[in-house]
């Protein structure tokens, strides 16, 4: 399961890859990006690949330190950066909405009433105590200190992952957030492999658990990895959540070690569900059903107009290939709805132009925004498509 907190530019320690135990990467951090930043890599929008679509990027906010979270409210675009600060801009004026414990930019979302929530991750090394303020959901108040809504790690300590494959089953690394109209908030936990619902008074319920999937080990992982083609039970790693225009809740997966490309799924969950199971062996049963498949290393979702989802892939070759020194190029897709509550066709936008993108959001008018890279100098862009 993913452990992305604590990845400071001064801490280039790589995520664990102890292939001897074949249990690594399940909770690994994407920390190699910090090493790239230290090495002087300039992680900015890249050059479009040949054959790419006619979409393009228009900067909205530039010179940002590791932008990741994105949300919108009216004409404002809201975004988060590495030190935990959250800002809102209309393209002319920028206002600070608040700051939560930093080291890794928080996930954010803004409710239909204009309340912005910030979600911190676990921080530090897998298996180590969570630093103060980590794994916590906050409500921001401009000009005042943020309010703690819920301690996610405290809840997860009492709600172990029954499908855990490695590391303590009570670990928590909240990574995705979505504000609902009724004042509750959805949280996707990348270490707990589950989706939680948080009430304003701090009450939490487990909405759904994502079961692991048996995948085939890809080639190119080195001599200490299992041979290519070996079946391997890989954890789901729930990194993202959004609400679709149909009102259903959608959750995206990163895919744990060996991070096999094309094995990240998007799940469609019935609103109000409690204790649902998202099972790749029975993907169309119950209150959590597979909506889309074939993605790689999903880190964010955004619900758009007419059933469209924006899907952000951290690295199109997989987070593990990137962590091993591979390409930093990520992806942004529009996933269109199909029939019978399943996905239809998808279209890649700004192909080859995004390095390590972290988040995306639609405005109420259907404008699409994306942020990245999550380490190094970056920006928030409006995507012309």
Describe the structure.
The protein has helices spanning 32-38, 152-156, 319-323; strands at residues 56-65, 70-73, 76-80, 85-89, 94-99, 107-110, 116-119, 136-139, 147-151, 174-179, 185-189, 194-198, 204-210, 213-216, 231-234, 238-243, 249-253, 264-269, 276-278, 288-295, 298-303, 309-313, 331-337, 343-349, 359-362, 368-372, 377-384. The strands form 7 sheets. Strands 10-11-12-13-19 form a 5-stranded mixed sheet. It has a 4-stranded antiparallel sheet with strand order 1-27-26-25, with no helix packed on it. The longest helix is centred in the first third of the chain and has 7 residues, at 32-38. The radius of gyration is 19 Å and the shape is globular. Residues 3-52 have low confidence and may be disordered. The protein has one domain (19-384): Neuraminidase (6 Propeller), CATH 2.120.10. The chain is built from 3 helices and 27 strands. The two termini are 33 Å apart. The chain is mainly beta.
């Amino acid at each position: 399961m993913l452990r992305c907190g604590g990845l400071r530019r001064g801490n280039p320690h790589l995520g664990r890859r102890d292939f001897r135990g074949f249990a690594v990467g399940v909770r690994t951090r994407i920390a190699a990006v910090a090493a790239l930043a230290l090495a002087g890599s300039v992680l900015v929008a890249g050059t479009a690949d040949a054959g790419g679509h006619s979409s393009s990027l228009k900067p909205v906010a530039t010179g940002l330190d590791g932008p990741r979270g994105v949300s919108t409210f009216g004409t404002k675009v809201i975004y988060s950066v590495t030190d935990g600060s959250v800002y809102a801009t209309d393209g002319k004026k920028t206002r600070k909405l608040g700051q939560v414990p930093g080291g890794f930019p928080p996930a954010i979302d803004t409710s239909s009433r204009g309340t912005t929530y910030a979600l911190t991750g676990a921080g530090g090394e897998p298996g180590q105590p969570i630093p103060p303020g980590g794994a916590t959901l906050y409500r921001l108040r401009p000009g005042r200190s943020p309010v703690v809504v819920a301690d996610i790690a405290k809840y997860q300590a009492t709600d172990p992952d029954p499908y855990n494959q490695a590391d303590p089953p009570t670990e928590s690394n909240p990574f995705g957030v979505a504000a609902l109209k009724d004042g509750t908030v959805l949280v996707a936990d990348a270490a707990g492999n589950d989706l939680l619902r948080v009430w304003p008074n701090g009450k939490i319920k487990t909405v759904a658990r994502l079961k692991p999937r048996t995948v085939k080990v890809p080639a190119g992982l080195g001599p200490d990895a299992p041979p290519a083609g070996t079946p391997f039970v890989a954890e789901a790693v729930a990194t993202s959540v959004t609400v679709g225009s149909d009102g259903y809740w959608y959750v995206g997966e990163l895919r744990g070690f060996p991070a096999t490309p094309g094995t990240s799924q998007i799940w469609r969950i019935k609103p109000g569900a409690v204790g649902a199971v998202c099972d790749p062996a029975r993907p169309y049963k119950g209150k959590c059903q597979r909506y889309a498949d074939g993605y790689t290393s999903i880190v964010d979702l955004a619900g758009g107009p007419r059933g469209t989802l924006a899907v952000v892939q951290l690295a199109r070759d997989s987070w593990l290939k990137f962590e091993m020194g591979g390409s930093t190029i990520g992806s942004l897709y529009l996933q269109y709805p199909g029939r019978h509550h399943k996905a239809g066709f998808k279209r890649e936008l700004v192909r080859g132009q995004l390095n390590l993108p972290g988040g995306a959001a639609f405005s109420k008018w259907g404008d699409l925004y994306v942020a990245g890279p999550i380490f190094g100098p970056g920006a928030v862009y409006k995507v012309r498509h």
